[in-house]
Amino acid sequence: MFVPEKQLKDLVISYLKAEERSISSLTRQLRKDGYRFHRLYLTGYLKALADMGMLKEKSLPPSKIYTTSAYRGQNLYEAIGEQCRRIEDDERRQVRLAIAIMQRLFRRPVFMREVKECGFGTQVDALQASKEEREEARKALLKIGIQIPTNEPAYYLQERRDEAKEAILAAIVLHKFEASALVQGTRQVSLEDKKKQ
Known about the structure:
Order of helices and strands: HEHHEEHHEHEHEHH
Strand content: 5-15%
Shape: globular
């Protein structure tokens, strides 16, 4: 049975990172792990992932062999880390900005694992969440299939308006959806508009 919390793409990539596989081999591995997909469905799915550049496909008649591609799109954490490094020079401030962004997005304390996924080390200059707050956040993540150790620290910052944080969130969304062209640059103000003010 397919578990919606775990995307098929993530399963396929995790299997193919370990070793290249044929469609039959991949179907058997998925079935062994409890995921039942028709072979034709999986064939089309693998072809689509190869067309997107996420997998490499090679023909070894009568089979097709798939392996992971070097290309992999950025995940949300990597995008946040990259944007924070672009805006701030000091790593301590980069980490604080990343925590502020994730805290704003997720509405919960941010775990050390998430800070590391952004590409930062373990030096965190932020308030530690209480045991109760950490446990509540951990349980929420567990409901969607993400396991966090009970002793992993979580951090938060006092909420305040921050233009850098908002600029990073906007940049990530605009980049992800290739929507930068929709953003108006500067607005021209006519003399008539000036007189009205």
